[in-house]
Design goal:
mainly alpha, about 75% helix, 17 helices, about 0% strand, about 400 residues
């Protein structure tokens, strides 16, 4: 699963840069080139909402292989010389449409492979670190490939990567039955989103997964105008753009390898609050070194996500895990896009450093409110017995801190 994840992720990143170049060369339009890149995110909300129920209705391996084969077919169709630009855009939308289903089914099956405890937390963290690293390396790899290959040739390698991923998943993972019957998975909105937001504790956990990243993308979205405003060159801009993902990777790596589960649980709340709070450094319109430090610190604080993953998978019913993971990734991607758009709109009226500072204040307030809600919904503990979930149905261990 790890190897398949890496191959498909690198394929997506290489496809993104190759397709933007391909469309720009075909049309000469910067707008069409940018639209090609944006179409990797826009269908996320629709695909995640409509397809979420499939993640529990069908066996995970079958879904994962089918999604990889569909993406491989779309990439192969893009390579065909007669495919028009409009067709390329439609195929790009199709790949993005199934992406949340693939991610949700993979996350749910990861808990089947590793169990819902500590191994799942570390495994999910590893995949997240790989995703961050692949985005840093993938664009460089894509640019390097385009010095030797035509854009269609690079996209052909993407199709081969998806095919290899499908083969790895088909031969390297065990076939497991579907988690829920078709009758319980028929309505993804009622059976998935309703569960996520209907239960008080699960709602707090879901919003803690969704909202902090929506604030975290604000400085990334405004790095270019901010760097221009303080007179930083393109070299400094590139360094700043790497700071947040590098900090995120380092934070998760350190938390997963150096800290015990109990220590991570105790640090969850302070780290979650620190992630947006560190961006208050923008208030004084600092230079490159201070901004670099603030972004690195915000990324390091993202290590709070490890224990949040544990609490989340503990709180979700097993039969809804696939849908919950699909909707979780859908909301995450959608709200990050909304955060970027709102940041850009606000920067039309206010200086970039003021927008980031406002996002830091608002983000810190939101995180503190959600942490208070999470603590208020923590199930009572019986001496000598582990904490149990307060949701209806079969319960499992949960809680803000591990004891």
């Amino acid at each position: 699963m790890f190897a398949a994840h890496l191959l498909s992720l690198l394929g997506v990143v290489v496809a993104e840069i190759s397709l933007t170049v391909l469309v720009y060369r075909a049309t000469g339009s910067a707008l069409m080139s940018a639209l090609t890149f944006a179409l990797g995110f826009l269908p996320y909300a629709l695909g995640g909402t409509l397809l979420a129920g499939l993640a529990d209705r069908y066996p995970a391996r079958r879904l994962l292989v089918a999604c990889d084969l569909l993406c491989a077919a779309c990439a192969a169709a893009m390579v065909w010389p007669g495919t028009p630009v409009a067709g390329i855009l439609v195929l790009r939308c199709a790949m993005a449409f199934v992406a949340p289903l693939f991610q949700g089914a993979r996350s749910a099956s990861l808990a089947d492979i590793l169990g819902p405890g500590e191994d799942f937390v570390l495994g999910r963290s590893l995949l997240r670190m790989v995703s961050q690293s692949a985005q840093l390396a993938g664009f460089g790899l894509g640019g390097l490939l385009l010095t030797f290959l035509a854009p269609r040739g690079a996209v052909a390698l993407t199709a081969a990567g998806f095919l290899t991923s499908a083969l790895l998943l088909r031969l390297g993972t065990r076939d497991r039955p579907a988690r829920a019957a078709a009758t319980t998975a028929r309505s993804p909105l009622r059976g998935g989103l309703g569960v996520l937001l209907g239960d008080r504790r699960l709602r707090a956990l879901t919003l803690l997964c969704w909202l902090p990243p929506a604030f975290a993308v604000v400085p990334e979205a405004l790095l270019t105008p901010y760097a221009a405003g303080i007179g930083a060159g393109t070299g400094a801009l590139g360094l700043l753009m790497c700071a947040l993902p590098v900090g995120t990777i380092a934070g998760e790596l350190a938390a997963g390898s150096l800290l015990s589960a109990r220590t991570r649980a105790r640090l969850t709340a302070p780290l979650a609050a620190l992630a947006p709070l560190s961006l208050l450094a923008y208030a004084v319109r600092p230079g490159v070194p201070v901004v670099l430090a603030a972004l690195l610190l915000s990324g390091l604080a993202h290590a709070y996500a490890l224990d949040l993953d544990r609490m989340y998978v503990d709180a979700v019913p097993d039969e809804l895990r696939g849908r919950a993971m699909t909707l979780l990734s859908t909301g995450l991607m959608t709200l990050q896009g909304v955060g970027m758009a709102l940041a850009g709109a606000a920067a039309e009226f206010f200086p970039a450093h003021a927008v980031v500072t406002g996002a830091a204040v608002l983000g810190t307030a939101v995180v503190l409110l959600l942490l208070a809600e999470l603590r208020a919904t923590e199930p009572p503990r019986t001496p000598g017995r582990p904490a149990r979930s307060s949701r209806p149905g079969p319960s499992r261990e949960t809680g803000l801190t591990a004891k």
